[in-house]
TrEMBL record:
Lsr2 DNA-binding domain span: 94-128
Pfam families named in the record: Lsr2, Lsr2_DNA-bd
Lineage summary: Bacteria, Bacillati, Actinomycetota, Actinomycetes, Micrococcales
Name of the protein in its database record: Lsr2 family protein
Domain Lsr2 dimerization: 26-79
Coiled-coil ranges from the UniProt annotation: none
Keyword terms of this UniProt record: DNA-binding
Annotated region (Disordered), positions in chain: 77-100
Length: 129
């Protein structure tokens, strides 16, 4: 990558030449402490009562927040939860629902053409087979 004169960082995009002028766009992320307006050092994330929060803090204020929370954290249990994944429900061995419905109708059970088959009907079918 090419470096621009007087800039120790590589140019993210080639400079734009407009006539004889060289135009460069530079973006900087500046953190400001949300409590006192001093230069910020980091973004601190925390959660309380089911809500997650983020705040930009200086090193001094970040340390003060951690110090204030330390006695509570020392007595708390971790609530880190694994990412949720789709769970599969197992209803045991797979049953041919068309066969169950046909048997149920022949056996006098009132059963719909679609939807979940009542457990009593499934139990009766399995007992009969």
């Amino acid at each position: 990558m090419r470096r621009l004169p007087g800039n120790p960082f590589p140019a993210p995009h080639p400079p734009l030449q407009i006539g004889t002028a060289l135009v460069v766009k530079e973006m900087r992320l500046v953190l400001t402490d949300d409590l006192d307006g001093s230069p910020g050092a980091e973004t601190v994330s925390f959660a309380l009562d089911g809500s997650a929060y983020e705040i930009e803090l200086s090193e001094k204020n970040a340390a003060a927040l951690r110090e204030a929370l330390a006695p509570y954290i020392a007595k708390a249990r971790s609530a880190n939860r694994p990412a949720r994944t789709a769970s599969r429900r197992s209803s045991g061995p797979k049953t041919d629902t068309a066969a169950v419905r046909a048997w149920a109708k022949d056996s006098g059970y009132e059963i719909s053409e679609r939807g979940r088959i009542p457990s009593a009907v499934l139990e009766a079918y399995e007992a009969a087979h």
